[in-house]
Every structure is written in C-alpha cells, then in structure tokens.
Amino acid sequence: MNDYQSAITATGAILEPYDSDKRFPVYGFGGLVNGVVNHCFPLTFDPSQPEVEGVNGIMSAYSNSFQFVQLHGPTMFAPLVHQAAAIAQTFSTPSEQGVGSLKYFVLLIITDGAIMDMQQTIDELVQASTLPLSIIIVAVGNADFTAMNALDADGKVLIDSRRQRAARDIVQFVPFNQFRRNPARLAKETLAEVPTQLLEYFNMKGIQPRTPVQRAGTSHLINNASNRGMSVESMESMAPSSQQV
Asked: Alpha-carbon distance 94 to 100, whole Å?
C-alpha cells in the first residue's frame, strides 16, 4: 500500500460515517489524460457520474485510473476548489436548500506535491468562503508543504488578488506522516476545524439549529439534486487522489 492508499484509507474511514449514502464524487488532478494535462477530472472517467461507493470504491477508482492516466505535474488546487464550489453553490442559501435538506460539503485533497498555483487557489478559496464548504488538505510524502499552512488561515484572513477578504477560514491542513501511526490523533487533526467552520457558516447565513423533532425523519431528504450533499447530520468528501508522484 503506497502513501496515497494509506491516506485514502485512513482519512476516508474518518469522514465516511458523516455521509448518509456513502457515495463520493472522486476527482484526480495532475494527470495526463488523453494526452492533455488535466487538473480536475473524474476518476470514473464519466463526467455525468463521478461518484463511487464508499472508501473501497475510492480505492478501486484510484487503482484503476493508472490504466488511463500518466501522472504529471505541476500541483494545482484551484480547479479542484472551483469544482467543489460549483457543487456547493447549488446549496448556498437556506431558501435554495429547502426545509429539512440542509447540506454542507467537505472537499478532501490528498497531495504529495508543493502547490504551484497559490494565488489562483487563494482567489478560489476567498470566493468559496461564503459557501457551505470546508476543505481538508492531507499532505503525504516529504515535499516542502510550507505553503499549505498559508492556506490554512488560522488566526489570519486570506485576501485575494482583488483585495477581497475571505468571509471565514474553510481550510484544514493535515501532514499525514506526522499522524499516520496514531489513528486517534489523525482523526482529531482531520476533523479539528470542521465543526467550527460549519457553525460559522450557519451563523453567517442566519441558520438556526433544528430541534430534535424537526431533525427526525429527514435522512431521506438528503439525496436530492445530484446526490452530492450533506444534511446537517451527514458529510461528504471528494478525494482527488491521482496526483503526481
């Protein structure tokens, strides 16, 4: 099992229980697909159906992708963030989500390369900061990941190229190698900021917590639109995983 597979298995097992239907859109990045470098492509190779079943499905999609993809740099995050934001945009206000179908998204990025499109990624993160979205970046290997910490704006505010400030911090950076032998610590680090980010989004949008009675019986409502969502009880991650080695 390589570092990617270890990270997919470990972090996927942490995030999977928060998703109701256990179906995940999975995207690759940093790959040569049909002779063209692509920084956001479905690992199912079917744009109309990017989802797979559970962590096992992610692992299978990752392994099978090497039949069709030649790994290629540079490491670029902006297209992935843009794709995740486009999905979350559909559910960006309570009125759009409807009663009983609140959704919040988590984009899981697994990478072994130093980011090369920092400013474009910051621009996308600032735009996405008003959406129901959190991003967990899991770094594997021994590359210089210093820049990743800059995206995890703890105590700071990201500012884009137009001098627009992020509405909130939506990124958590996890250096996988530091915690790979300590599952409890890995789980803690992976989920460390998501609850606060979720509450900040709800506060920003004026969304009030539902009572236990209001929450009862709503699990069947979370699978609408394109089946990519989360109720306030369930979380979905997208795990781009076919990155350069």
From this structure: 10
Is residue 105 within 8 A of residue 228, CB to CB? The reply is: yes
Q: What is the CATH number of the domain that holds 39?
A: 3.40.50
Name 137's bridge partners: 109, 173
Selection from 187, 159, 160, 184 nearest residue 172 by Cα: 187
Q: How far apart are CA 40 and CA 83, in angstroms?
A: 8
Tokens 């009675």 belong to which residue? 213
Angle, vertex CA 171, rays to CA 167 and CA 173, nearest 5: 155
245 part of a folded domain: no
Q: Which domain holds residue 173?
A: 3-238
- Give per-residue pLDDT as tens, 10-55: 999 999 998 888 899 999 998 888 889 899 999 999 999 999 999 9
Reported pTM: 0.83
| Number of domains forming the structure of the chain | 1
Residue 59's pLDDT is 94
Predicted pLDDT of residue 73: 81
Q: What angle do CA 88, 47, 8 make, to 5 degrees?
A: 70
C-alpha to C-alpha distances, 186 to 12, 191, 220, 238, nearest whole angstrom: 11, 9, 31, 18
Structural domain includes residue 129: yes
Backbone angles phi, psi at 173, to 5 degrees: -105, 130
Coil/strand/helix, residue 155: coil
